[in-house]
Design a protein that fits this description.
Length: about 250
């Protein structure tokens, strides 16, 4: 769920790093990451973001339709790996590839930090889309705007499902494009790009409270989803093996 540059991200005040992890923030152009790692890796992450964005920006410059498409695009074997990952996620969720960009970048940053041995645990949050790779379970607070459920319900992610993506889309919170009216639709998947794209697709289906069953059923048709939680006004629906709701 991309968030526009300059938006104040109040939900980040809920971030609780724990004793073994340090919290820091890195901003580069539109990319604004909140990260938990075993030490402050701000400079390393800044360089990583630049490395990751460079081929994506070049591809968009050469293929402007990639930026604006609201439907899946045809495969492009010559595209950079991150672009192909976004395209695959978009096809599975039946949305445009940019619906997966925040999740894809979050996961790539996290994977690179782990692969380079810079930390053995990491959380990367990018506009409400989270890549989680921890050695213990974690609870993600559900931010649902003005809903009375916002901040009162958490999603406990068991260690067995990590690394994974936990991504949220909303038709009422933030400036990212949504065609629906959900306070929040949160998706868990092994692939963070897929979780991001699927959250967008499912949030687009929400037209009111009566949409909740339809959203939960549609989630079952997207391969790779481990769980979904949807909030519409004061109603909540949830489904999936990775979903464990807790009171906060």
């Amino acid at each position: 769920m991309p968030v526009a540059w300059g938006e104040i991200r109040h939900y980040r005040t809920w971030l609780r790093p724990g004793q073994e992890l340090q919290a820091f923030r890195v901003v580069y152009r539109e990319t604004d990451l909140a990260i938990l790692a075993e030490r402050d890796l701000s400079m390393e992450v800044l360089h990583l973001i630049q490395e990751i964005r460079r081929p994506l920006e070049r591809y968009i410059q050469d293929h402007p339709e990639f930026l604006k498409a609201l439907k899946p695009l045809s495969e492009d074997p010559g595209a950079p790996p991150l672009v192909r990952k976004m395209m695959t996620a978009a096809r599975l969720a039946r949305v445009g590839p940019m619906a997966a960009v925040a999740g894809a970048i979050a996961e790539e940053v996290g994977h690179q930090l782990l692969a380079r041995g810079l930390t053995s645990q990491v959380v990367v949050e990018n506009g409400g889309d989270i890549f989680l790779a921890l050695e213990r379970s974690a609870t993600v607070a559900l931010y649902a705007g003005e809903s009375p459920l916002s901040g009162r319900v958490g999603l406990r992610i068991a260690r067995e499902f990590m690394p994974c993506g936990v991504c949220t889309s909303s038709g009422r919170v933030g400036h990212s494009l949504s065609l629906g009216r959900a306070e929040a639709v949160c998706v868990i998947a092994r692939d963070t790009a897929l979780a991001d794209a699927a959250a967008t697709a499912l949030a687009n289906l929400v037209k009111g409270r009566k949409s909740l069953p339809r959203v939960l059923e549609a989630a079952e048709d997207i391969p790779g989803i481990l769980g979904v939680v949807a909030v519409v006004e004061d109603r909540l629906g949830a489904r999936g093996k990775a979903v464990e709701l807790v009171s906060l």
